[in-house]
Specification:
- The complex is a heterodimer of chains A (about 525) and B (about 240).
- Chain A has about 525 residues and is α+β, with helices and mostly antiparallel strands.
- Chain A contains 16 helices and 21 strands.
- Chain A folds into 3 domains: about 220 residues, FAD/NAD(P)-binding domain; about 150 residues, no CATH class; about 80 residues.
- Chain B has one domain.
- Chain B is built from 9 helices and 13 strands.
- In chain B, strand 12 and strand 13 form a beta hairpin.
- In chain B, helix 2 packs parallel to helix 8.
- The longest helix of chain B has 29 residues.
- The radius of gyration of chain B is 20 Å and the shape is globular.
- Classes of the chains: A alpha+beta (about 525), B alpha+beta (about 240).
- The structure holds flavin-adenine dinucleotide.
């Protein structure tokens, strides 16, 4: 019988390393002598990437399962709430061009497809009795979801009386990546029994079968284990350098390959904290703007093939000038090269890669941390009992994660092809069919005639649901041919009820919820209760 | 609370507070803050729950008077005359306010005694005087003492609740009530002691609870919940009589 799995060794102490360590240690009781032992080795010579400040709502479950208190997490990692993303200038590039991708599902999402009724309402603007009400036609997301209004008003997604992790409006976080890694580290070591080794891994020792027997460290000698997790970020020490698993470049689909990042303090202590990520499209990329309680994190990601570093810096300065004025001239930006690509395989022999060592795509929809969470969950849930089971688990894992990465690529690319911008080569090149994955081309054809639906995606745990595709497609005003089918009167009534219901709760929540800053300050002072 | 005036022998020389009327004044109050020192008495008459302060999210111990907002079954049924009155109710129409020193010399916020002059029990004809020959009457002294006890009680409350939260001993309770006339109501936002968790508390912590005198307080909270069914019975009777009428 093959030896049972007793010891997991994780190399790398960025978000990927600590999330994986925390999930495995919590689920497999590393605190106790009977549990699975987890060791994390982190090089004191290689810094963590230290960016990556936007999460998905999944992070709430991830933290809760590791036994983290939301209050502690929010206080110590400079956390604010994120209720989705606002995409500015993505559709036409005009000054007033924006749409939202909120985190709350459309009203009645599981009962009715509201899109066609929304479109119908917009096509026949209130020419009826109450024409004094000649309101602007509502955007898709505002018509079907109350969250856009909360974001526009800078409101929080919950109350100080709401328990930890409970939401009134579904939410994720904005966080300080450096503080987050340090926080998880201390939690994993002190509460979950993760063993920590601060040392640089140099060489890898193999067994006869080609498995990793141990990793050699400068000061702690060989550290052996049953499963090795490669969380070494871009250096991809185990999966890339040791196992030579190739990185499949995705630069021909997603052009962005460079980031310029900067941290911006608030002008005044009581400046509003945006409760959504703001993504503003540029000539050859886009700028992220993330509001933390103590500062903003801003960055320009762009395609180096379509613009120069100088122009990219100027674009970032120009963007910042509108909020901080002349101070934008004195800023220095941190440049990060990114190489969009995905490993051909993620799990080989007794080694699995999580985080940027497994793959990295532009941060457009904050998909990196969510993929890390999904990987950590899958590994801890499917943790092979022994070496004999491992190859089977690995096979399933590889299939599943190739699928997941492909869906992310499709979803990110969607933002570029649904855009109407043709003003620069970057936007035009993005629409070249050669650059669009076939899977996405097929879906786009379907979606000309019907809405994205759960049927289009096969996995139980999809990274992005059909609702996300709807928000992006309809936010961008994607061309859509009305089917001629007769509209069912009953459904018509249901649709109007849903719109009315959404209007009602939009008013209700807008009145009841505090501002994002007000709630964050109360958390600092009082904290949430667990119940 | 209406209009608060800082109590002074000059300004309130002739002010008097009617003895009766406190019950009528609270006819629409469905719960009151209570403090640890009075848990034993309170638990004899009222259900005790923890509720979250809407402004801070912090738990506060409360005595429940009704089963819906603005309802006071003790008042409407006449039961209140036979019950212990929580200190917070007894202290009316006096309150503590944070006095801002006009000279600005005194940095510390010193709470001072205030009278709600809008309270209908406050007038100049009859009842308890506040001052007699510029000196505080026994009545005023007693009211001051009640407020001091309350202030101390809120500090004790805090420590008690912190410990309960620390050991995950607070659980949410939802009251699903169906009256005889098949009217239904759901009361949310109430919390009590989680008995299952309480049994799991390690012995050294149990000892700590005992030493601090928290054990009888928790028992009082748990047993007091039985009063909810009494309230439902009374309300059934009230509903029945109003329907007949
Ligand atoms: C510009 C930019 C913006 C981003 N924005 C987002 C976002 O909004 N949302 C999101 O989810 N993600 C975002 N990401 C991605 C996110 O930052 C990463 O996925 C995340 O931080 C995980 O990184 P990691 O742990 O894989 O790698 P790293 O943080 O790079 O950690 C690598 C670790 O490996 C260790 N290591 C390396 N070599 C050795 C060795 N030889 N021996 C021992 N240890 C070693 C290092 O010491 C370090 O601890 C962004 C990324 C970039 C570049």
């Amino acid at each position: 019988m093959s030896k049972s799995l007793k010891h997991v060794v994780i190399v790398g102490g960025g978000s990927a390393g600590w999330i994986t360590a925390g999930r495995i240690a919590a689920m497999h009781n590393s605190k106790s002598a009977q549990g699975v032992k987890v060791t994390l080795i982190e090089s004191p010579d290689v810094n963590i990437i230290g960016v990556g400040e936007g999460t998905w709502p999944t992070m709430r479950g991830t933290l809760q399962k590791m036994g983290v208190s939301e209050t502690d997490f929010m206080r110590e990692c400079d956390v604010s709430f994120k209720q989705g993303a606002k995409f500015a200038k993505w559709v036409t590039g005009d000054e007033d061009d924006f749409y939202y991708h909120p985190l709350v599902l459309p009203q009645g999402y599981f009962d009715i497809d509201l899109f066609k009724y929304w479109q119908q309402n917009n096509q026949q603007p209130s020419n009826s009795q109450n024409s004094e009400q000649s309101s602007q036609p509502k955007s898709f997301s505002a018509a079907v979801c109350f969250q856009e209004q909360l974001c526009e008003n800078g409101l929080a997604p919950k109350l100080i009386t709401s328990p930890e992790y409970a939401a009134i409006a579904n939410y994720a976080y904005h966080l300080d990546a450096g503080k987050f890694a340090a926080f998880l580290k201390s939690h994993c070591i002190n509460k979950l029994g993760v063993e920590y080794v601060s040392d640089h891994v140099g060489t890898i020792n193999s067994t006869d079968s080609g498995d990793i027997a141990s990793v050699n460290t400068n000061n702690h000698g060989d550290i052996s284990g049953d499963l090795f997790v490669d969380c070494t970020g871009f250096s991809s020490l185990l999966i890339g350098k040791h196992f030579q698993v190739p990185l499949i470049s995705k630069k021909d689909v997603l052009f962005i390959d460079t980031a310029l990042a900067v941290q911006i303090p608030y002008e005044k202590g009581d400046d509003a904290i945006a409760s959504h990520t703001i993504s503003t499209a540029q000539d050859a990329g886009w700028i992220w703007d993330i509001g933390l309680p103590s500062r903003r994190g801003v960055g320009h990601v762009y395609s180096s093939k379509h613009t120069s570093q100088g122009d990219a810096e100027n674009a970032l300065r120009k963007y910042l000038k509108s909020s901080i004025g002349e101070k934008s001239e004195d800023l220095t930006f941190r440049k990060i090269d990114i190489n969009p690509g995905i490993r051909e395989k993620f799990w080989v022999n007794n080694c699995v890669a999580v985080g940027m060592s497994a793959g990295f795509l532009e941060p457009l929809e904050a998909s990196a941390l969510v993929m890390i969470e999904l990987a950590a969950t899958t590994i801890s849930e499917q943790l092979p009992a022994n070496r004999e089971c491992m190859d089977i688990v690995a096979k399933h894992y590889n299939e599943r994660f190739s699928y997941n990465w492909d869906r992310i690529i499709d979803f990110l690319k969607l933002h570029y092809i649904a855009s109407k911008r043709e003003d620069t080569a970057f936007w035009r090149d993005n629409k070249d069919p050669e650059t669009i994955p076939e899977s996405l081309q097929e879906l786009m054809t379907l979606w000309k005639h019907r809405s994205p639906s759960e049927y289009d995606f096969s996995q139980k745990r999809e990274v992005f649901s059909a609702a996300s595709y709807q928000y992006v497609l309809y936010g961008m005003d994607y061309e859509f041919t009305q089917s001629n089918s007769e509209k069912d009167e009953k459904e018509q009534n249901l649709a109007q009820r849903m719109f009315a219901e959404n209007e009602k709760i939009t008013v209700k929540y807008s009145a009841a919820l505090p501002s994002n800053r007000e709630l964050i300050e109360k958390i600092a002072q009082f904290g949430f209760s667990k119940v | 609370m209406g209009k608060l005036e800082k109590v002074s022998s000059e300004k309130h020389k002739h002010s008097k507070v009617l003895v009766d009327g406190v019950l009528a004044n609270n006819a629409n109050v469905h719960m009151s803050h209570i403090v640890l020192q009075e848990f034993a008495e309170v638990a004899q008459y009222y259900p005790i729950f923890l509720c979250k302060d809407s402004d801070t999210g912090q738990f506060q111990p409360m005595a429940l008077f009704g089963l819906t907002v603005d309802e006071n079954i003790y008042q409407s049924s006449g039961l209140w005359r036979k019950c212990y009155l929580p200190l917070k109710i007894q202290s009316q129409p006096f309150y503590l306010i944070n006095d801002v020193d006009p000279s600005g010399n005194n940095q510390q916020d010193k709470p001072s005694l205030a009278l709600d002059v809008d309270d209908n029990r406050v007038q100049q004809q009859q009842g308890n005087s506040l001052f007699s020959q510029d000196k505080a009457t026994a009545y005023l002294q007693q009211q001051t003492k009640i407020l001091a006890d309350l202030t101390q009680g809120f500090v004790l409350n805090r420590a008690f609740i912190t410990l309960l939260s620390e050991y995950d001993l607070i659980e949410s309770v939802t009251l699903d009530i169906k009256y005889n006339n098949s009217q239904e109501c759901k009361l949310e936002g109430l919390y009590s002691i989680n008995q299952t968790m309480l049994e799991k508390v390690p012995t050294d912590i149990q000892k700590q609870f005992e030493q601090q005198g928290y054990v009888p307080l928790m028992s009082a909270m748990l047993s007091s919940i039985n009063h909810v069914s009494t309230l439902i019975d009374i309300k059934n009777a009230l509903l029945c009589s109003t329907e007949i009428a």
